Amino acid sequence: MATALNRKIISVYPFVKWAGGKRQLLSEFKKYFPPVGSYKRYFEPFLGGGAVFFDLQPDRAVLMDINEELINAYKVIQNNIEGLIEELKKHKENHSKDYYYEIRDWDRLPYYKERTAVERAARFIYLNRTCFNGLYRVNSKGHFNVPFGQYKNPRILDEDNLRKVHLLLNNGKDILIEHTDYKKVLEYAKEGDFIYFDPPYYPLDPTSFTSYTKDNFGPEEHKELAAVFKELTDRGCMVALSNSSTEEVRKLYSFDGVELVPLQARRSINSDVNGRGAIEELLIINYKL
């Protein structure tokens, strides 16, 4: 395992906007996360924008997400960065409101799955950078349905950062990327591994956004996640989990050896500007540093 003293850190950040992204909390996490090199492998089963992985930069990691389009984009960046950049150049050159809706409607066509992995990844990034508020949302049929965002000059192609992400996902590192449900972590994780969960948060109210795919993540799913957290704890894994600061969440993680750390976070993806203020959330950990 690499030590903190000899690690080379790449200056890199998420290539997509993502609801609930953790960039603002990274400095706080450093106070509570075990240092890289003190654990065998890093797992992030709700990968999303990947801000925590990009900050930690472990040499061995298993990155998972149930969002197929998101995971496809990560894999393309890992394996075909040149092809992706060329496709994004085309989107940048043709960008307009009409063009946006033309590209958005690809997944409504029967031959969408015949599109190449590179074409789908470029579409995913293009829509993310140009849709309203950077939100990822699909309807019951799995069709992306976020309207056009009124941006004067959206950053459709961030070539320098994409190349750095590509370098981070390669460069002699052992990085496995999987499209799968978070429970797959139970097939991999062993004693001495570190797992960070960042699920859709327990809803604060009935209008809280909890769905990044066509499948919702509600109270029953949170109960199942708490059971997975407990099983990993029993295996001797170090586990950290972010969630909303609610009485229901506190009850779910009330077992021995668990600490609930309150953190102040700022919600940035909200259609109501008044809903973007600081709010308390929890970092739940099962270890002592």
List keywords for this structure.
289 residues, alpha/beta, Rossmann fold, Adenine-specific Methyltransferase, domain 2, seven-stranded mixed beta sheet, 10 helices, 15% strand
Query: What is the number of independent domains?
Result: 2
CATH superfamily of the largest domain: Vaccinia Virus protein VP39
CATH architecture type of the largest domain: 3-Layer(aba) Sandwich
Radius of gyration: 19 Å
Q: What general outline do the C-alpha atoms trace?
A: globular
Query: What's the CATH class of the largest domain, please?
Result: Alpha Beta
Q: What distance lies between the first and last C-alpha atoms, to the nearest angstrom?
A: 18 Å
Topology-level CATH name of the largest domain: Rossmann fold
What characterizes the major β-sheet?
A: 7 strands, mixed
Unreliable stretches covering 5 or more consecutive residues? 209-214, 269-275
Order of helices and strands: HEHEHHHHHEHEHEHEE
Q: How are strands sequenced across the largest beta sheet? A: 3-2-1-4-5-7-6
- The total of helices stands at 10
Helix content: 25-40%
Quickly give the structural class. alpha/beta
* Count of β-strands: 7
